């Protein structure tokens, strides 16, 4: 079940007489699998899900990111989930070493500004520098990004207050996809969990999406992954993703799939003729999701557009 209320954002900005509207903006609410009032359920975690930050030196992006962060902090979150594409891009053939180091240096400086929060990140397709002069170069490929993001491995899992979190690496052959090694690991990781365990799975590419129908970008191995999930009807599985810079929600075989927009919108730019608002990508404004996770395995996903 879901309810979506798109904010009349510009009108609100006008009414309030503000150039910048922070938490006053009505969120886009996507409530998964339970429409009971939040007060009837015990909330155990509040998470900020940011994705596609695409940090870059241009367009004042670092300062605009800092302003977003101040808004996010007001939600009193427990930790961050970062859905990948943390930097603008390292993956193009013409990217030089100093461009890669410049982008990650900005990210590290920003990250130091909120180091009191834990952040669990996944790899985005634009994060890796494949054009390094050699595969032995310390900055080549995924290992360097794993270090920059401070994560244990390109895929991993962890537990918090009864919820199990799985972070996947979608960046494999025929992306988005899981490689063989990761498939085996995922199957084992799910098999080990007790019945009833609530699960939140984060990948960069959507495992299943709605916006991927017109725009592409879906996991190419969705059939395999959804069949794995189907073997676990006793568990409550939810998936979040980025990559699309679009907001959508799909439900299939009782699994919820949320594609949570992007923090950078139109890569911090003003947009194009298809942008429904300044800085938007298509009909999705830049923003972040605040996710409330409940003890009974339900969750509520609210997307907060930002206007920076
Ligand atoms: Fe992206």
Explain what the structure shows.
With 308 residues, this protein is an alpha/beta fold. The chain has 7 helices and 12 strands. It is globular, with a radius of gyration of 19 Å. It starts with 8 loop residues before the first helix and ends with a strand. The model is unreliable at 1-23 (pLDDT under 50). Fe (ii) ion binds next to loops. Fe (ii) ion binds at residues 52, 54, 85, 243, 245.
Please provide a brief summary of the model.
With 308 residues, the chain is α/β, with parallel strands linked by helices.
What is the fold's blueprint, element by element?
Elements: H1 9-16, E1 28-32, E2 43-50, H2 61-73, E3 79-82, H3 97-112, E4 119-121, H4 141-149, E5 156-160, E6 163-167, H5 180-191, E7 198-202, H6 212-215, H7 222-230, E8 236-241, E9 247-252, E10 255-260, E11 287-294, E12 299-305
Parallel strand pairs: 2-3, 3-4, 6-7, 7-8, 8-10
Antiparallel strand pairs: 1-12, 2-11, 5-6, 9-10, 11-12
This protein binds fe (ii) ion.
CATH class: Alpha Beta
Beta-strand share of residues = 15-25%
Briefly note the structural class of the backbone. Answer: alpha/beta
Helical proportion?
Answer: 10-25%
CATH H-level superfamily = Metallo-dependent phosphatases
Number of domains: 1
Number of helices: 7
Low-pLDDT runs: 1-23
CATH architecture group name: 4-Layer Sandwich
SSE order in H/E notation? HEEHEHEHEEHEHHEEEEE
Pfam family, one: Metallophos
InterPro entries: Calcineurin-like_PHP (IPR004843), Metallo-depent_PP-like (IPR029052), STPP_CPPED1 (IPR051918)
Organism: Cerina litoralis
Domain Calcineurin-like phosphoesterase: 45-245
């Amino acid at each position: 079940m879901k309810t979506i209320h798109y904010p009349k954002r510009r009108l609100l900005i006008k009414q309030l007489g503000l150039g910048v509207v922070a938490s006053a903006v009505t969120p886009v609410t996507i409530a998964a699998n339970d429409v009971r009032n939040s007060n009837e359920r015990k909330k155990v975690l509040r998470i900020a899900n940011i994705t596609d930050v695409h940090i870059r030196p241009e367009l004042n992006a670092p300062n605009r990111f800092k302003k977003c962060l101040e808004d996010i902090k007001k939600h009193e979150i427990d930790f961050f989930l970062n859905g990948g594409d943390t930097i603008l891009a390292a993956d193009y053939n013409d990217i030089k070493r100093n461009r890669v180091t410049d982008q990650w240096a900005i990210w590290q400086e920003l990250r130091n500004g909120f180091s009191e929060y834990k952040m669990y990140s996944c790899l985005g397709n634009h994060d890796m520098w494949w054009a390094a002069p050699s595969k032995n170069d310390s900055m080549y490929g995924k290992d360097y990004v794993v270090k920059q993001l401070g994560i244990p491995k390109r895929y991993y899992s962890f537990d918090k207050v009864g919820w199990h979190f799985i972070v996947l690496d979608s960046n494999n052959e025929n992306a988005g996809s899981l490689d063989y090694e990761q498939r085996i690991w995922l199957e084992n990781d799910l098999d080990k969990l007790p019945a009833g365990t609530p699960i939140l799975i984060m990948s960069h590419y959507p495992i299943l999406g709605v916006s991927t129908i017109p725009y592409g970008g879906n996991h190419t191995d969705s059939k395999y992954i959804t069949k794995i999930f189907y073997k676990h009807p006793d568990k409550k599985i939810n998936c979040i993703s980025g990559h699309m810079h679009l907001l959508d929600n799909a439900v299939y075989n009782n699994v919820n799939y949320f594609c949570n927009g992007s923090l950078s919108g139109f890569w911090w730019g003003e947009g194009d003729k298809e942008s429904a608002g300044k800085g938007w990508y298509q009909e999705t404004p830049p923003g972040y999701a605040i996710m409330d996770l409940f003890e009974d395995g339900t969750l509520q996903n609210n997307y907060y557009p930002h206007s920076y």
